[in-house]
From TrEMBL:
GO biological process terms held by the UniProt record: glutathione metabolic process; L-phenylalanine catabolic process
Record SUPFAM superfamilies: GST C-terminal domain-like, Thioredoxin-like
Record-linked Pfam families: GST_C_2 (PF13410), GST_N_2 (PF13409)
CDD domains in the cross-refs: GST_C_6
Annotated GST N-terminal domain residues: 1-83
A single GO molecular function term of this UniProt record: maleylacetoacetate isomerase activity
Top-level taxonomy: Bacteria, Pseudomonadati, Pseudomonadota, Alphaproteobacteria, Rhodobacterales
Protein name in UniProt: GST N-terminal domain-containing protein
């Protein structure tokens, strides 16, 4: 059985977990929670991924896979689920990359507040990360809504995970303001069983 090194609050892990639900592969993977931060990397994570990041998928028949985009692409291929359809491939990959950028910037904001001593924190740096998130959300709301209302693919999963993480850690930023279309879509997407089953602890 494969093992997924994970943390329940990680949006990148949640993206993989949603993919497992949507592709019917939950029974093939043991989800292994680990405590892992850039300042205190978990030994098992570092052994699986030299970057020391989660998620990492430990396989029985080869080296561990890491980076959520690699893992999700592998799981999609394994299940022949069609989450990266050939006729929309570049759109899906671009939307997934946009979502991953949102997650990366939002996670860095969280780390800055939680892992650095207050005297060493940089409000300007935090705001610079939020500018990336804000700009990406505006682009998704303006350019990608017709795609998001189409057949489920990895773009949907990634954006759903990204928006939910912003809600979890940066709700006070009120990302929905001025983005009614994206807010309505996200509300509906959160009703999917895969989203309900992968909600992180409060």
């Amino acid at each position: 059985m494969m093992k997924l090194l994970s943390s329940p609050a990680s949006p990148f892990v949640r993206k993989v977990l949603i993919t497992l639900h949507e592709t019917g592969q939950l029974d093939d993977v043991e989800v292994v929670p680990v405590s892992n931060t850039p300042m205190a990397p978990n030994a098992a994570v570092a052994a699986a991924n030299p970057m020391g990041k989660i998620p990492a998928l430990i396989r029985e028949d080869g080296p561990a896979l890491y980076d959520s985009r690699v893992i999700c692409r592998y799981l999609d291929h394994r299940a022949k689920a069609g989450l990266y359809p050939e006729n929309r491939m570049w759109d899906v990959l671009t939307l997934e990359a946009t979502a991953d950028g949102i997650m990366e910037a939002a996670v860095l904001m969280t780390y800055e507040k939680r892992l650095r001593p207050e005297a060493q924190q940089s409000p300007d740096w935090i705001e610079a990360q939020w500018v990336k998130v804000d700009r990406a959300l505006t682009a998704v709301n303006a350019l990608w809504m017709s795609h998001l209302y189409g057949k489920l693919d990895m773009g949907h999963i990634a954006i759903g995970a990204a928006l939910s993480y912003v809600d979890l850690r940066h709700d006070a930023r009120n990302w929905r303001a001025g983005r009614d279309a994206l807010a309505v879509w996200h509300k509906g997407f959160c009703e999917r069983p895969s989203m309900q089953a992968t909600q992180p602890p409060a």
